[in-house]
Amino acid sequence: MNYLVLNLVFLGLALCALLLVPKNRWPAYLVGMIPMILITAIFDNLIIASKVVAYDTSKISGLTIGLAPIEDFAYTIAAVLIVPSVWSALLKRRNK
């Protein structure tokens, strides 16, 4: 299994979680997404450059942002979608 296939699983779950919140709140996710993607780009490149992590080149697409494979950004996107969506759903359930 390559990283792209694994990412599709996480992103699919993230999109399902996004359906738990009203559509009028979706623009707020973009506000959170932009800085998180930037932070991921900076720190992923630093940890890859310092050889803290390495990727099996046979398991990545080859598309990179700096040194970071594009697949690495899927986890950030999934987290930005899943965490507030689940939080919102739990608060909504608790307030019923």
Helices and strands in order:
Blueprint: H1 3-18, H2 26-49, E1 64-65, E2 68-69, H3 73-94
Antiparallel strand pairs: 1-2
Helix pairs in contact: 1-3, 2-3
Characteristic terms for this protein:
96 residues, mainly alpha, two-stranded antiparallel sheet, 2 strands, 65% helix, 4% strand
Architecture overview:
The chain has a two-stranded antiparallel sheet. It is mainly α and 96 residues long. It is elongated, with a radius of gyration of 15 Å. The N and C termini lie far apart (42 Å). It has one domain (3-94). The protein has helices spanning 3-18, 26-49, 73-94, and strands at residues 64-65, 68-69. Strand 1 (64-65) and strand 2 form a beta hairpin. The protein is 65% helix and 4% strand.
